């Protein structure tokens, strides 16, 4: 649609008017429509006579928001505002980004997914359901806006920590795309949330008379992968330039899907690649604070599941990028799963784990006090570990003796208990700071309050993917990239690490504050764009031009003047 010179892609070329205009969230200014605009678009009498500024609207919206008495109600209020007036919604979010982000995304969005059918109000995004599998291109053509820069798609099976939510999983793409807009500046009308509704195995959803999804057990096996394939082919056909981000798929599906399609279209999986990139960024920041190099680090990875191996892969790529050979880098990784240290004598390792197996001869004489295996305490006693990362789901695994032993040998131990939720965190941030006499550099998976230690207030960085994915969206749109490659993810992590506030101020957090995140996202997008050009997956343009495009692409919420 075209309004006063502003082109809004919507598939129609009509000029919205009257109540239609007020019902179009991306154009609606509500009480901020000027007198001239009210005359031009037939809005007089539809609106109260007083014309407000955006600032006044924000103040009024915040007042209404404050009257809500729980987080789910606050989320519902914000979603309703988003469906009414997108500029006002994003301005409110931007003005109070630290307060609002947890309400539109994690943790509150988990509640919104569970309650999806009960709080459903208006359509947003697409439900691509299995019974309609033969007409997916037609379903995509029903999208509200013709063009899309980013799709976030889930099948609702592994939603955050709350498992299978079926069609209610759509809450995640909706929330996540709000952050693509808020932080990455992807235009709101160019985002498209999608749920692949292949049923649910969650009895609570299936037995809920109000459940709005396809009431059927999950489609599995080849039929599932065929359905995903039909969907990908439809996206390639209908939206070939759009970045397709996979979200909250169960582990047995996530990796095969990424592997199959990563070289076929512009796509990435945030749970796998974004997690690795943000953790790597935090490690790189911490290493800089210690004044050492990544190449020198002895890394202990506690947990060898999809997250642990993903983070190890990212760290290894950074180490080889810094000049170590594959073999040298691998010799500095000590990876542990529930059966102890990964070593070449073990026959139970998956291929991606076997890469990290230490030669059995290297550890033959080590104690095995963990049910006959080499456990974390055994390991920490034997090596001078500098980095300890937990992605194991084992709450409290980083015990006081283990942490003290590590800190005895290292001036600034880097310790990241990354498992979620808080009950599964390998250690409490406060304990880590106290057990190391304030020397540990800590980032966590779950939020922890700043720790008071000897008159210092030490903020704890939360390794949240929000530091990466919106920037990645901005990067691919601004640079015109056709693929998301591992070196691009690495470039993102390096730029995040270089922006660690702790480098300049030893008592600051390892990761930027949310209030600074748009600036950091633009820097990341630039670095990723440069890398995309190096690899030949984005058109060659000058650095100045790339910077200009990043700046221009990063949309900020402000009203357009429709009077002219
Ligand atoms: P997963 O189930 O694939 O892997 C868990 C790993 O921990 C397995 O290798 C398992 O053998 C190991 N493990 C379990 N018990 C153990 C024990 N007693 N000792 C040693 N190792 C043990 O799970 P996934 O997806 O890798 O996630 C792991 C954790 O990481 C979860 O809590 C998840 O919430 C968290 N996570 C955090 C992220 C963040 O950014 N903060 C991002 C992604 C995951």
Description:
The protein has 564 residues and is an alpha/beta fold. Helices cover 45% and strands 10% of the residues. It contains 26 helices and 16 strands. It has a seven-stranded mixed beta sheet with strand order 10-9-8-11-12-13-16, sandwiched between helices. Strands 3-5-4-6-7 form a five-stranded parallel beta sheet, sandwiched between helices. Strand 6, helix 13 and strand 7 form a beta-alpha-beta unit. Helix 19 (376-382) packs parallel to helix 20 (400-409). The longest helix is centred in the middle third of the chain and has 21 residues, at 270-290. It is globular. Residues 251, 275, 302-308, 336-338, 391-394, 418-420, 424, 445, 463 line the site of 1,4-dihydronicotinamide adenine dinucleotide (NAI).
Query: Within the largest sheet, what's the order of strands?
Result: 10-9-8-11-12-13-16
Calculate Rg over CA atoms.
Answer: 25 Å
Helix content: 40-55%
Q: Supply the helix-strand structural class.
A: alpha/beta
For the residues shown, what is the average pLDDT?
Answer: 95
How would you describe this structure in keywords?
binds 1,4-dihydronicotinamide adenine dinucleotide, five-stranded parallel β-sheet, alpha/beta, seven-stranded mixed β-sheet, 564 residues, 16 strands, disordered N terminus
Outline the fold blueprint.
Blueprint: E1 2-3, E2 6-7, H1 18-22, H2 35-40, H3 54-66, H4 71-84, H5 86-95, H6 97-104, H7 108-114, H8 116-119, E3 126-129, H9 136-141, E4 150-154, H10 171-184, E5 191-197, H11 203-206, H12 221-238, E6 243-246, H13 251-261, E7 267-269, H14 270-290, E8 299-302, H15 306-321, H16 326-330, E9 333-337, E10 340-341, H17 351-354, H18 360-363, H19 376-382, E11 387-390, H20 400-409, E12 414-417, H21 429-435, E13 441-444, E14 451-453, E15 456-458, E16 461-462, H22 469-479, H23 486-498, H24 501-504, H25 517-534, H26 543-553
Bound molecules: 1,4-dihydronicotinamide adenine dinucleotide (NAI).
